[in-house]
Every structure is written in structure tokens, then in C-alpha cells.
Amino acid sequence: MDPTGLVVRFPTNRPLTEQERAHQLHQKRRLNVKPRYQLSVIRMNLTYLESVDKWFGWKGTISVCATALCLVFTLTFGHTALLFLLEAASILPSTEDRGVLLANGLGMASIIGLIVWFCIWLLRKECFAYTHYPIRFDGGIAWYMSGARTVPCCRCHGMTFFFSLFRLSGEWEVRGHVLAADRDTVVESFALSHHDVMQHQDLDPAATQYSDQDFVRSHWEFIRRYMEEGPNTVIDPVQFCIPVDGRRESAIFGMHRVFANFSGHSWVMIAMVAPICLTIALFRIFAMRTSKIPRWPQEVEAACVIDEGDPYAIVGDAEGNRLFVYPEAAPAAVGTVSGTPGPSA
User: Fold this and answer.
1) Has residue 141 been placed in a domain?
2) Whether the predicted pLDDT of 313 surpasses 80
3) Parallel, antiparallel, or unpaired: how do β-strands 49-51 and 135-138 relate?
4) C-alpha angle with apex 123: 117 to 126, nearest 5 degrees?
């Protein structure tokens, strides 16, 4: 899991890089790939598409790392620091200089304290924060909640958007940049929820044909088609909506979501990573239970009112199964990926 944007802020107040320009994704340009929602949709309708953030699938991982780091350092060096202090205080016999022992003990205790403080700071990036950081897409408008700042919501309206593939450590993701008036300076950034490895041929900027394994562009195409062509072009494949709309996920769902990161791998691989996934799932429960459910500001909700009887309005039940908000209108939305109306009620 790449922590950029959550643990450290996305780099801003900078010019676009050559790599970003070379791998730009145009909102008006349809790509020859199959749109995939990649377990990202919270809810969708004619007004907006709401998606989870890129850290949601691995939530609990930072908590595991922070706790493990804290335990390793405190258990490894805490015992030694305590011995130094006890000897300096003449509680334990020692032939060493008391001042040296005291200095060593206090020095080690200070280092341990700094490490514990850092681990708590890191832990709070997932725990005692928000259960997730949703993104809403509404045509040329995007709202997103930031996990890297104390401001709960940023509204990017009337700005210039620039979407591009962005390379992580071994993987790629799609980042959206809000540009200043000069159309070159990055003011704000956010990432779509899916990131993955990409094959060499799919990274050629001049390519127009992409492999079936280009899931990063496929996820972008899902978002792009919704924004440019409407929900009728993407609703059919969405059979699952993340059950976090105004509520916390269940412990069972959280475990399933962590294991879903290895969907498609062999049973041997899944068996090997099962202990790690179970550990992450346990910490995920704590992170979710101590975090707040995000609430959009009134200005965003006012701009995202769903029409009564919207045939494309879908959410997830407690298990995540797709539900139509207005079931009596749902038949009009079924079978419309091709862009043609579905069967009438």
C-alpha cells in the first residue's frame, strides 16, 4: 500500500512533470479497454458517483506496522534503558560510573519516547481518524476528502483538471491534479482507488491498444465514462457497492475486503499470506471502530441531490450487494451498458 496522500501529503505547488504529461489521460477520449469498477463504488446515481479512497482496501496495514515498530523498539531497547537507570539509581549493583549510566539510560529512554511518539502519530493516520475518504464525481466536478490534512473536504469547482498515470514503487495509479490558472502548477492532487502493476507495452504513451491486464486504465475508463457518458454506460457490471454509506463496515466484510486484495492468486499464495491478512483484518476492526464516519459539508450535499425515482440510484446492503434506491424504476436501468434503454417496467 502506498501511503502518499495519507501519511505524507501529495506533492503540490509544483509544475507538472514530463512523466505526467506523457501519460496524460483525457476526459473526452474513450479508451479501448473494458471499464472495471474494482470494488470502489459506494453509491451511484444520475447525479454523482461516489468511490472509496486508494487506502481503503488495505486499511489496517499502517496500524499493524506502527504497532509492530513500537513493540520491537520498546522491547528491544526498553529493557536495556531500564537497567541503566536502575544501576544509576543504585537499585542494582554496578561497577560503572553512575553519571555515565544515567546519561545512557536517559538517552535511550528519550529515543524510545520519540519512536513511540512517531508510532502513535502513524497509528492515528488510520485510527481515531475517518473510516474512509470518499471521492465524488459529478461530470466536470470532483469533491474529495483528504486524509493528509485537517480540512475534512475540498471542493474543486471551476478548476482545470489534469488526470495522468503516476508511478508508485512498482505499481501505477491514476492521479487527478487541480491546476492553477497557468494550467501547469499543481494546486491539489488526489488518486483514484485502484493501483496495480502495469505491463511494459501498456506504458507506451503512443499506444492505442492495451492488454486485458491493464486494470489501472480500465478503472479510469469506468470513472471517465460515468463522468462523460452517464451511468447507463457502466451500471450493469456494478453488482457490489461498498457498504460504508453512512455506516461502518462489519468485521466480516472488513476481513473479506483484505483478502480480496489477493483475488485471482493461487490458493498456495492465499494460504501463505493468510496470517498477515488476518492480522491486518483484526487491526482494521480497531481502526474502523475508533474512526468517524465521514460526512460531506452541506454545500456538497446541496449540489448532489438525487432526483426522485432515479433509475440508476444504487447503494449496497450490509453485505455490499447492489440495491436500487427506487426499485420501481430499476428496470429502466437494467441492461444499459451499451447505451440503449433497458426493458420497461
Assistant:
1) yes
2) yes
3) antiparallel
4) 150
What mean pLDDT is reported for the chain?
A: 86
DSSP string for 46-89: SS-EEE--TTGGGTTHHHHHHHHHHHHHHHHHHHHHHHHHHHHT
Q: Are 175 and 188 in contact (CB under 8 A)?
A: no
- Note down the domain range covering 144: 14-57+131-332
The total domain count for the chain is 2
- Residues 151, 108 within the same domain: no
- Answer positive or negative: Cα dihedral of 222, 223, 228, 233: positive
pLDDT at 161: 85
Asked if residues 135 and 143 have their Cβ atoms less than 8 Å apart, the reply is: yes
97 and 158 share a domain?
no
pLDDT tens digit string along 290-306? 999 998 888 888 888 99
The answer to whether residue 341 is domain-embedded is: no
**Which letter does DSSP use for residue 208 in this model?**
-
Integer Cα distance of 255 and 282 in angstroms: 8
Q: Cα(190)–Cα(171) distance, rounded to whole angstroms?
A: 16
Same domain, 32 and 79: no
Query: Under a CB-based contact definition with an 8 Å cutoff, are residues 190 and 10 in contact?
Result: yes
Provide the pLDDT for residue 112: 87
pLDDT of residue 170: 83
279 and 164 fall within a common domain: yes
Mean of the pLDDT values across residues 3-21?
91
Do 323 and 227 reside in the same domain of the chain? yes
251 sits in which H/E element? helix 251-259
pLDDT value, residue 68: 95
Pair (202, 276) in one structural domain? yes
User: Cβ of 110: how many Cβ atoms within 10 Å?
Assistant: 11
Shared domain check, 260 and 166 = yes
